[in-house]
Amino acid sequence: MLQVKNLKKTYGAFSLDVSLEVQEGSITGLIGQNGVGKSTIFKAILGLIAREGGTIRLFGKETKNFDREDKERLGVVLPDSGFSSYLTIQDIIPILASLYPRFEEKRFLEKCRSFQLPLDKKIKEFSTGMKGKLKILAAISHRADFLFLDEPTAGLDVTARDELLDILREYMEEKENRSILISSHISTDLEGLCDDLYMIQDGRIVLHEDTDVLLGDYALLKVTEEQYRTLEKRYLQKKMKQSYGYSCLTSQKQFYLENYPGITVENGSIDEVITMLVKGESI
Q: 23 with 1: CB under 8 angstroms?
């Protein structure tokens, strides 16, 4: 559904050069620390900043040629976006209705009530979690076909994050051809939600993998220096020196379980995989 090829953008010493895809009916996650280029990707795709190179196609169409009807098919949540803090939910309903012909007022109000969002209270009095829920509900209120969510769970407590993720799961279940591109620096938010994950570091994609493969096939090998010397290294991606020897990242966990029963093989969390890819030494 979304194809980004060789997207380029430069800010001083920072350089972005990425390619990624989001398949129809899937949720794709973009993981990386703050400042590595996630928001730049979102803004370039949405036409909020000028790109210096590359192509971006969505719904089979170059986004530079999008018309109003194309844009109405999008739902967007950005960290610095939102409604005036002096408005109430009742105040923003006519705004949404004027922006989106497909706005579903009745359903929007039902969702707001189900998530205990007060309709007549000014947004400035909302908690951070309440504001996050409102932004998501507004983004899906007009039957959007594609959601762009840049750090939607930032600053939220665990309960509020879980509620937001439930909203997104329900959104996807309602219509099979919907898609989401969501970014976060909190990997646990995405590992139970996304079909596949892109990891970005310093403006470059360092890994793209199906979430099931990442969680099931990747592992950390904990080995002594002697064990490392005899280890088959063609399936190792990175290594990191430790007090006991080395920690090594592999995407072929089963190979080492079957052929090296004497070494310690641990399932690596997404955070540990990112750390190894970014800070680990090449084999």
A: yes
Residue pair 41/7 in contact by the 8 Å Cβ criterion: yes
pLDDT per residue of the chain (283 residues) written in tens, 0 to 9: 899 999 999 888 888 999 999 999 999 999 887 778 888 999 999 989 889 999 999 998 998 888 888 888 999 988 877 788 899 999 999 999 988 888 999 989 988 988 889 999 999 998 888 888 898 889 988 989 999 999 887 777 788 788 888 888 888 988 888 999 999 877 777 887 899 999 888 888 988 989 888 888 999 999 999 999 999 999 999 999 999 999 999 999 999 999 999 899 998 788 888 888 888 888 8
* Residues composing the chain: 283
Instruction: Report whether 40 contacts 32 (CB < 8 A).
Output: no
Structure tokens at 86: 């002096």
Phi/psi region, residue 227 (left: phi>0; alpha: psi -120 to 50; beta: rest), is: alpha
* Closest of 206, 190, 222, 218 to residue 18, by C-alpha: 206
- Tokens 């949404």 appear where? 96
User: Residues 162, 190: contact at Cβ < 8 Å?
Assistant: no
**Which positions ≥6 away from 13 have C-beta within 8 Å?**
none
pTM above 0.70, yes or no: yes
Cα-based torsion angle of the residue sequence 218, 169, 24, 150 in order, rounded to the nearest 10 degrees: -80
Quote helix, strand, coil % in the chain, to nearest 5: 35, 30, 35
**Cβ 175 vs Cβ 24: under 8 Å:** no
Residue 131's H or E segment, with its range, is helix 128-140
CA distance 62 to 67: 11
Element (H, E) at 282: strand 281-282
**Alpha helices in 72-210, H assignment, sequence order:** 89-99, 105-114, 128-140, 158-174, 187-191
Which residue carries 């966990």 as its tokens?
Answer: 253
